[in-house]
Design brief:
By secondary structure, the chain is of the alpha/beta class. The chain has 11 helices and 11 strands. The longest helix is centred in the last third of the chain and has 22 residues.
């Protein structure tokens, strides 16, 4: 098993022993699955979540010969897809790939949610986690995180942060950094990462927290400069880029992705799926593919996943309230 936020998971493990993997005590048919399993991805094809979902589905299919159908249900900052999962029949044939946004940030960000992230969905496993990367234009005067922060403090409210969307991990990472470093952040929201990066390159904004997939090729191509990553450790694909935590102890903001099923799904199905996911994540080929795109495999038991998500729900909820973030 692989733990990207090892300390958080180890802390969860002790408390997890007394939790059940799902509220249902029903026992499923041992033949499960005897038909294709729908894997709901709450974002568009080709994005970071979709890439991980399809990789996991592929590896599970190779190991188990189970069949998966990826169903992209984008919209609502990830809420639409998760609502589909929450309201599906709890028979093991609908699985969703939730993440930090729709399981931990959105419940506080949005005044009205179509589902309860902690009650209507049961975690199977945290699959992988990925930080965001603080990037500036390659010709920007900021050569380090310290220089960017110094400029932000010298010109309060003038240094602009591009957002791929309100309430995204990049947005919240920026809010937490501003609070820790003591400067006022000026957010410029966009409808997606592509237009945000375009305006960053065009000089309309000054910096952005981007996904490794969105930033890596432009950093290597000399269009963007990476100043810091938000993981606890440096990324293997960007070994020379320091972490924010090297300047601000304990800082960590990762977009974790977790397989979830509707509440009431039989416990033995949850455990069977969890065992298959853990086995797939332990394979060197899976590890290599995840690391190559800036993610880290996680794994662990359903109980650990439930405790971790509950803790993240509380942590990001507090961050949203403290920053006073509201949906666009």
């Amino acid at each position: 098993m692989f733990f990207t936020t090892r300390r958080a998971f180890m802390a969860c493990a002790a408390a997890a022993a007394c939790l059940s993997a799902a509220p249902s005590l029903a026992i499923a048919d041992t033949a499960w699955p005897d038909k294709p399993v729908r894997l709901v991805v709450p974002y568009t094809p080709g994005g970071a979540t979709d890439i991980v979902a399809r990789l996991v589905a592929q590896k599970l299919a190779e190991d188990t010969h189970w069949s998966f159908i990826v169903d992209n249900r984008a919209g609502g900052n990830g809420n639409i897809g998760m609502d589909v999962v929450a309201k599906s029949r709890p028979d093991g044939y609908t699985v969703g790939l939730g993440q930090t946004a729709n399981l931990a940030i959105n419940p506080t960000l949005f005044p009205k949610m179509p589902y309860d992230a902690l009650k209507d969905l049961v975690p199977v496993a945290v699959v992988a986690s990925q930080p965001v990367v603080l990037v500036v234009r390659a010709d920007a005067p900021y050569k380090s995180l310290a220089e960017l922060i110094a400029a932000a403090k010298a010109k309060p409210g003038e240094i602009k942060q591009a957002l791929a969307g309100t309430g995204t991990l990049g947005h919240m990472a920026g809010e937490v950094l501003a609070q820790r470093a003591g400067f006022k952040v000026l957010n410029v929201p966009y409808k997606g990462a592509a237009p945000a990066i375009t305006d960053l390159l065009g000089g309309q904004t000054d910096y952005m927290f981007a996904t490794p997939q969105g930033a890596l090729s432009m950093v290597k191509g000399g269009k963007l400069r990476a100043l810091a990553v938000t993981s606890a450790k440096r990324l293997p694909v960007m070994p020379d880029v320091p972490t924010v935590g090297e300047s601000y102890k304990g800082f960590e903001a990762v977009d974790w992705k977790a397989l979830v099923v509707p509440a009431g799904t039989p416990v033995d199905i949850v455990k069977k799926l969890n065992a298959a996911v853990d086995k797939a994540l332990a394979k060197p080929a899976t590890v290599a593919q995840l690391l190559a795109e800036g993610s880290t495999p996680v794994g662990g038991s359903p109980e650990q996943a439930a405790q971790y998500i509950k803790a993240e729900h509380a942590r990001w909820g507090a961050a949203v309230r403290e920053a006073g973030v509201r949906p666009e």
